[in-house]
Every structure is written in C-alpha cells, then in structure tokens.
Amino acid sequence: MTTQDFNILFVIWRECIEALLVIGILNAWLAHRPPAERRVGRMWLWSGVGVGIIGAVALATLLLTIGDALSDEAQEYFQTAIVLIAAGLIVQMVFWMRRHGRTLKSELQASLDQVADRSNWFGVFVLAAIAVLREGSEAAVFLYGTMASAAGSNLAAAIAAGLGLVAAFATYWLLQVGSRVLSWRTFFRVTEVMLLFLAASLLMSGVGHLISLDVLPTLSPRLWDTSWLLPDSGMLGGLVSGLTGYRAQPVLMELLVYAAYWTFVLWILYRPRALRPA
User: Fold this and answer.
1) CA separation, residue 165 to residues 1, 7, 8, 170, 249 (Å)
2) Closest Cα to residue 70, out of 59, 56, 81?
3) Tens-place pLDDT, residues 242-256
C-alpha cells in the first residue's frame, strides 16, 4: 500500500466514524421512543442517510466531470485549488470536533426532543442528511485532492476507500463495546494529531504546485539538503513526506508556509478559552 492509499484509507476511516457517531446518537435516541414513533423516526433517519450519500457521490462526480472538461493548464490550477481546499477542510474538521465533541450528544438530543414534541420527523431526516453529506463531501474533496497531488491508481484508491469504510464500522463497534479500554476522547485526540500532519502534507503539495505554476516565488535556492539522511522519496522518506509534509530540500517559501501553518494551528488549539469562538 502506498502512502497515498494509506492517507485515503485513514481519512475515509475517520470521516465515516464521525458520521457513524452522529447516526449512532440519533438511532440510540429513537430506541427510547415509543414503538410507533421509533418506526417512523427510523424511516426518516435512514432516508436522510441515503440522501446524504447521494449528495456526496454527486459532488464527487461533479469534481471529476469538471476536472476532465478543463484544459491541461486549467486542470493544474483546479487540482491545486482542490488540494488546498482539502487541507483546509481537514483542519476545519479537527477544530469542529474539538469544539463540539463534548457537547455533541446533548446538543443533538435537545434538538431531537424538540422534533419529537412537534411530531416533525423531518428534523431527524435533516440531521442525518447533513451529518452524512458533510463528512461525505469532505471525503470526496479529499479523495480528489489526494489523487491530484500525486499520481496513483484509481482502483487502488477505491480499494483503500473501501477498506477505510470497513475499518470505520469495525472501530465504531469496538469503541461502543470497549469504551473502558479506549475512550472516544482518546481516539479523537490521537487521530486529530495525525490529521493535522496530513493537512500539512496536502498544504505543502499545494504550495509545490503553486511554485511550479509560477504563482508563488521560491524566495531562495534550496536551503539545505537532508536527502543523505532521509530523502522525501522512496519507501520510508515518501511515507514521512506524505504523512507530514517533510521536504528534504525545501525552499524558503515552503519553510515559511509550513511554519505559518503550525503557528496558526497551535495558536487555535492552545489560545485562552476566552478568545475562542462559541
């Protein structure tokens, strides 16, 4: 499995778990409703899941259609934009889960109680559809961006995505039955670090594309060369580069962007609570 395939598997795995978490909360809430309400509610729930999946597939199809319709030069710009958007979406996903993870269940249940009081099950449909569409759309953009940032087999990418989906269901089940061994909090803290490094890797790929397109200047010759220690190609070096954004021969622009990225991320993560958005 290549680094690209591993990244695809990892992100699909994490995105699917987030969607499963929301769907699981909705389904658990419905399990405590009277039988008649439960049947109606679950019909709306799974209809919402289906619509969310259709929306994500439609977005993926649209990205492929647009990409294929563009000229070679325009396609370079389009793919570079998608790579950068994918990096931004991953960072946004980490921050969103960090902000809402603790209160997600209570917030959803409060919304569902209001839905039940009004006998308006369309709210369950909307919550399920948004959850699946949000995660599915992020996954679609990431898949396209990853395929654009490095050459790879579409079949291998599809297999990696399928394995990520299977791994997500297995992990969700393990976290449900073995929460004493590995809590949801620990799981999200560990995977968010990996996601932030992955976003950094995508960002560096995007910056590399922009430099090659003469949109950004290099600002310097190669600052150093650590290829003798760890090249950013090959099995180990390619893995480190693909997972973290490491460059063996960086230019000043790459170094500045990488430093600015981590400065921003760490400031957002560790700034005083009083400065954080509600």
Assistant:
1) 16, 13, 10, 9, 36
2) 81
3) 888 889 999 999 999
* Residues 165, 66: Cα–Cα separation, whole Å: 26
In angstroms, the CA 178 to CA 184 distance is: 10
Residue type, 120: N
**How confident is the model over 209-239, as pLDDT tens digits?**
999 999 999 999 999 999 988 888 777 787 7
Q: How far apart are CA 62 and CA 161, in angstroms?
A: 18
In order of 37, 67, 148, 214, the CA distances from 117 in angstroms are: 11, 46, 48, 59
Within a 10 A sphere around the Cβ of 94, how many other Cβ atoms? 22
CA angle 211, 213, 215 (to 5 degrees): 65
Q: How confident is the model at residue 171 (pLDDT cuts 50, 70, 90)?
A: confident
CA-CA distance, 198 to 47, in Å (whole number)?
33
- Entry pTM: 0.78
Only one residue has tokens 């325009």, namely: 74
Which percentage of the chain shows pLDDT scores above 70? 86
Task: Mention every residue, 6+ apart, whose C-beta is less than 8 A from residue 1.
Answer: 9, 156, 160
